[in-house]
Design a protein that fits this description.
alpha/beta, Rossmann fold, 18 strands, six-stranded parallel beta sheet
Amino acid sequence: MAEGPTLYLGAFIDELTRSGLRHIVISPGSRSTPLAVLAAEHPELRVWMHVDERSAAFFALGLAKARREPVALLCTSGTAAANYAPAVAEAYVARVPLVVLTADRPHELRDVGAPQTIQQIGMYGDHVKWFMEMPIPESDEHMLRHARFCASRAVIEANRKPSGPVHLNFPLREPLLPDLEHPQLFGSGRSQGQAYVAAPDAHARLDRASLERLADQLAASERGIIICGPIDEPALAEAATELAALIGYPLLADPLSPLRCGTHRRDVVVDAYDAFLRDERAASALKPDLIIRLGAMPVSKPLLQYINRHRTSRLIVVDEGGWRDPTLLASDMVFAAAGELCRSLTKLLAERGEKRDGAWLRCWQHLNSETRLALEQGIEQAEGLFEGRIFTELRQLLPDNTVLFAGNSMPIRDLDTFFASGDKRIRIAGNRGANGIDGLISTALGYSAAGERTVLVLGDLSFYHDMNGLLASKLHRLPITIIVVNNDGGGIFSFLPQASLKRHYEELFGTPLGLDYAHAAAMYGGKFTRVDSWKAFRAAVPQAMDEGGLQVIEVRTERWSNVEQHRRIWKQMYDRLAGLELPASH
């Protein structure tokens, strides 16, 4: 490769690291050779090789989420880049910073039938924050500045709130091998390792007048609730609970918020709302004056229905940017960092001497504790390997500093209902941006790559979807414990109206596969354990975490029995709540 492309691409890779990027996930290919070789050569970049581009992208997604920083992706031209699309969409909706680098044929080889060439310009559409078609690499001073400017901007744009993916497309001509012996390989540009563009972190915050108006609304609303949806802001737990305690509001904690588990105060945390808001009497009586929602919309469908039921209540959505209100009921959109806003409101209301007697909060607390007792009783009485019990068992089994990653469809919903709040430092994670079942193994392995002890719970269809992702565990020696809930098909459809279509249900929705996943674990050098009792489960999980490596634990369940047991538990809960006194509507 000539000096021009070597220096231009070397400057680009170097500037990624100067801007703070430390990890790049690469899939093999020819056209991406110069970028891949330069990334491997750079002393400050960690290269993670992953053969399958779809799995590679989800792996990068998990690594970026775990480390809370941008991660780069690199692949060759053609359909390789198209395979990034599902993870790019998830990253965009879930606000995860990815720097997507795709190699491409030069302009003269496009639209003329050249092999491995498709339309890559803007191929991810509106699912990236920023797109740049890079020039053919050259090494004059202006172009070297351009390389560094684009690399620096890519990292900044990916990180800037709300975070998300960016895409840079590189047209490259042969020859493709860079000159690794060039004395200025990474040296052109700013001196002393300084980033080309500095962009200090800046968080949105309310001005004093707006903060005062918001405080007035809270002071005037006795029956308010705070809902904390999926949001990755660890310091929010203390800030939100202190505010809730001061103003006497229950704090409804989604499992993907930092409030479900941890050492913060939890007396104001309500974690069984997904269960008791199914009760018509409770959902009707608990009419709020004011709802404050922090972060994204929670997992719980009964909570969504509760908000829609009380559409005359004032709904204040607090978010760092964007427009996330699927209820279409928001009366106020407050663009601010949630933790800082909670701290500011607590300070202001405390200075005013605002404090409530807590009757409204005590009602929610009593409902929550009675519901938890009903759920625990129902779990104990459930026959066989009931899927919801997996999470009550894991709550006891998992040690501090564990990531519990929940797959979509039923696992995340059962986790929401049955995994009670606790003081263990458990980081609960999931892909709840686009909510797909693809890439879950790879995303969880991204957390493992960040050094986190990781336990993944997912269904058998989700496991099948991303079996290629298991390769990362083998290649990079990443430990992970995977619990496969095997009900031989799509269990969530058994709860939906489609279940009444008996004639076509199994073919179109149940989709039983009849696969033995022991072979998949063996192919990737893992250990497979099939448990047939909770005693065996309680032995298998700690042993898997202690042994390390790839550990797959299968829990065999039956779809229709699982539906009936869920309904039996709801009935027991309704009966228990029927005798409780609820607040009078107003």
